[in-house]
Design goal:
Elements lengths: L12 H35 L14 E5 L8 H5 L5 E8 L3 E2 L3 H10 L3 E7 L6 H11 L10 E3 L12 H22 L4 E5 H8 L8 E4 L12 E10 L8 E6 L13
Parallel strand pairs: 1-2, 2-4, 4-5, 5-6, 6-7, 7-8
Antiparallel strand pairs: 1-9, 2-3, 8-9
Helix pairs in contact: 4-5
Length: 262
């Protein structure tokens, strides 16, 4: 019996070459895209550009802070995006009232977001008068976040190397803090950044919980009493094109109770 050998098909050299060329092209594209991504990351790191959003694997209690610069929010939608707490601007100086405060505060509470009010400190202006204005305007219920004082430079809060000027800024801030402590029975939280911490807060407010703004890294552990970290001014929430300030609480949900008014 004659056994016929099975014929095997051979691919033509041209087809093999085409396949090799296609693979080579794909590799080039992958390398090109990778170089762009790597270059982009380098640019972020080199020039301090801030990512628009950041999710931490270390911190889980996330919050938002807003003022009249932000819209009146749909707080049900905010709460659905893992936002557990909110600080809302109530006042500034001795007369300014935030126009959106009376809307955002009750809406946030109704949505189950733990809510607090903050006062923007005007440098060197009577601390007693600022405290009076904040207390009369703001809303402060049991279970709300402890009232906060915002201490930062602005167009009106100018930076100066003058020692007398800085002394007045600290003195009136001490009066503001003391008046709020006397009224609420707890020390207000102080919001600030690294520069203002060194200029006005360090060594003057050892008993206050601190809320530190640092857009590059988490607060230094040398600031032992920080509890809230504002990590971005460009946070994204679904449903809004505007960027938001986002924050993390330092510890667990259970320990978060330390920030609440009795």
């Amino acid at each position: 019996m004659t056994i016929k050998k099975k014929k095997t098909k051979r691919k033509s050299k041209s087809k093999v070459r085409k396949k090799d060329i296609s693979i080579f092209r794909i590799m080039l594209i992958v390398l090109f895209v990778s170089s762009i991504v790597a270059g982009g990351i380098y640019q972020f790191r080199k020039y301090g550009y801030e990512p628009t959003h950041f999710e931490s694997n270390k911190y889980f209690v996330k919050g938002i802070d807003i003022s009249h610069h932000n819209p009146i929010l749909n707080w049900e939608a905010v709460a659905a995006q893992n936002i557990s707490f909110a600080y809302i601007k109530a006042t500034e100086g001795i007369s300014h009232k935030d126009r959106n405060y009376t809307y955002n505060y009750p809406l946030a509470k109704q949505a189950g977001v733990v809510t607090g009010s903050y006062h923007f400190y005007s440098f060197g202006v009577s601390g007693q008068e600022q405290a009076k204005h904040f207390i009369e305007t703001g809303q402060f219920d049991t279970g709300d976040l402890i009232p906060a004082i915002d201490v930062e430079h602005s167009t009106s809060n100018i930076y100066s190397k003058d020692k007398e000027y800085r002394a007045v800024v600290v003195d009136e801030l001490l009066r503001l803090e003391q008046a709020l402590y006397d009224y609420f029975g707890v020390h207000p939280i102080i919001y600030t950044n690294n520069d203002c911490y060194k200029l006005y807060i360090k060594d003057h407010f050892p008993d206050n919980t601190l809320w530190i703004s640092d857009l590059k890294k988490e607060p230094d552990n040398n600031i032992k009493n920080w509890r809230i970290w504002q990590f971005t001014h460009k946070g994204e929430l679904i449903g809004w094109e505007e960027p938001f300030d986002l924050n993390y609480y330092r510890y667990s949900f259970r320990e978060f109770q330390e920030l609440l008014l009795p």
